[in-house]
Amino acid sequence: xxxxxxxxxxxAFASVGASPPPTTIRxxxxxxxxxxxxxxxxxxxxxxxxxxxxxxLSVSSGRxxxxxxxxxxxxxRPETVDVPLTETFKPHRYLLDGGFVxxxxxxxxxxxxxxxxxxxKHEKMR
Length: 126
Prior knowledge:
Elements: H1 2-17, E1 23-27, E2 38-45, E3 48-54, E4 56-59, E5 62-74, E6 77-89, E7 93-100, E8 106-112
Parallel strand pairs: 1-7
Antiparallel strand pairs: 1-4, 2-3, 2-5, 5-6, 7-8
């Protein structure tokens, strides 16, 4: 009985000290051969530079401001633009995707992969 109490006490302390699952944000990768494609990287979190661009980032759940750098080809020349994104994140896996729509406007899409219905795949932007 005493051993069972010690095990229960250990499990209770272990669960109190356990950190919550992280929020994971990753960027969708596109084929470089598509002239309409772009490359997305994460360059800043909550006002602080990440040092080098990242394709995947783990953060605590809650409200965060992220800067997404978009590389693309415009009029035959490579261009970049930084796009701010502020969102409240759950401890889930997120996918950031983006692309140009026929009007020429750029769309940035944040998808919660943990809330996507089972069996449904992410539709890549073009």
